[in-house]
Design brief:
Length: 195
């Protein structure tokens, strides 16, 4: 997706995946100029960079940013949000939605999302329906491919923004931070098979 975006924008850049061991993380975070950070390192990357954000998934010249919650620009109604999960992405959504009710196995469980209009599913659970939604509710489902929770929500008539939509929103925001240019979102969506 990012390589397609770079090519469309005329950048001679290459997006590569790099596995980083825990003991290599600090050096990798400090040495890289432009990068994305993924689970399980988002919280630790924020600490290493001295970020005021609780979670970092995008690095730009030694600065830490979070584009995890960029998908919220596509959410039209958000008066009673809830977040299910407690990892790095959940932390980014808690920062973006401080009024959200938070459900996690370390705290309040099981999730009771009946009175919410927006639910962020930020756990790695794919094959189990963790909660049910109804028409009028919106689910932002971070894992991809779609989880059982997302499939059940869509079948029940709830609006679902699945993990690939979240990935495009995050990726577009990262692209714009790295390049200072608008992201070619259509190219990115096509690269993921969304158009």
């Amino acid at each position: 997706m990012q390589n397609a975006a770079f090519a469309a924008a005329g950048h001679d850049w290459e997006y590569v995946v790099r596995d980083v061991l825990p003991e290599e993380l600090e050096g990798a975070v400090r040495d890289v100029e432009y990068a994305n950070v993924t689970a399980p390192y988002k919280l630790e990357a924020a600490r290493i960079l001295g970020s005021e954000l609780p979670s970092v998934n995008t690095i730009v010249r030694g600065g830490g940013f979070s584009t995890d919650a960029a998908i919220l620009e596509q959410v039209t109604s958000c008066h009673k949000p809830a977040i299910v999960g407690d990892g790095g992405a959940a932390a980014a959504f808690r920062h973006a939605l401080p009024e959200a009710r938070v459900f996690s196995r370390r705290g309040e469980w099981p999730p009771d999302v009946g009175e919410t209009d927006l639910v962020i599913h930020a756990t790695p659970v794919r094959d189990e329906v963790l909660f049910e939604l109804v028409p009028g509710q919106t689910l932002v489902d971070l894992p991809y491919p779609r989880t059982a929770t997302a499939e059940a929500a869509a079948a029940a008539g709830a609006r679902v923004l699945d993990g690939l939509e979240v990935l495009v929103a995050q990726g577009a925001a990262s692209f714009e931070l790295w390049t200072g240019r608008s992201a070619p979102v259509d190219v990115m969506r096509t690269a993921l098979g969304l158009t």
